[in-house]
Amino acid sequence: MTTYETILVETPVDGVGLIRMNRPQALNALNSQITHEIFTAMEMFDRDPSIGCIILTGSDRVFAAGADIKQMLDTTAITMMAGGDFTDWSRMTRIGKPIIAAVSGFALGGGCEIAMMCDMIIASETAQFGQPEINLGILPGAGGTQRLTRAVGKALAMEMCLTDRRLSADEAKHYGLVNAVYPIEVYLNEAIKLGQKVASLSQVAIRLTKDAVNKAFELSLQEGLNYEKRNFYLLFGTEDRTEGMSAFVEKRKPVWKHK
Ligand code: DAK
Description:
Helix content: 40-55%
Strand order of the largest sheet: 1-2-3-5-7-10
Bound molecules: 4-(N,N-dimethylamino)cinnamoyl-COA
Number of strands: 10
Radius of gyration: 19 Å
Distance between the termini: 27 Å
Number of helices: 11
Structural class: alpha/beta
């Protein structure tokens, strides 16, 4: 069994895998150890047929305060280009199951970026989103300039990246960055409930749906429509499609086989 030092991994309810970032002394700063452990745990849940949805969270005080600045201090362009620290974040984009970020407190820099790499974001009322890299003489390097701009639009993304303007939880909801905001006492439970809902559905349909929605960010409209149609046709080869439609016609609940 894999052991972790910087994250806690559990299954709080059937079907939902929870990963909790746990470097409180560094406000969950994302060094190469914690990101390696997060992505390894995600890959493990992705392969586990009993898990239908993954949740990434931190503590009530902090989701993550960004990449570890102390580790970055000695990193060079050459070591990054050679595949050293801070280069393997794209592992997360290959996770096929939906990932929900449950965010409370600071989600800054790489913390905001890793939340945006998730498929949905549930925030507590104390959540704060920002890209403060400009204060360090760098720019967001894990998708902040791209995913944030797609999520909130150019004007606000520019302001956030150029001036370290931060978004409160309510602003993040208003601008479409997060799905919902809840009081701090319940945000994690609400994320778990959302995860349970996702996990209760046909996992093969869920996987192809996530895949198709994500393509909207990468393809032209026509290419995206073709891609969507391809996934749609593929689902007509599954037992779950037959079961879902039969259950509707027979006025009963479907029993998913996930194949
Ligand atoms: N890195 C390392 N340590 C950090 C940290 C960070 N990002 N954030 C906080 N800490 C540490 C502090 O140094 C302090 O440690 P000690 O001094 O006690 O040893 C401890 O956590 C508590 O922090 P504070 O004393 O500062 O706590 P406050 O409540 O006063 O302030 C704060 C909280 C979150 C406002 C503040 O800590 C802060 O501004 N932190 C830095 C935020 C930041 O600038 N984040 C952006 C970092 S750059 C990439 C992948 C990722 C990235 C880039 C590329 N590739 C895949 C290519 C990402 C880059 C970034 O995120």
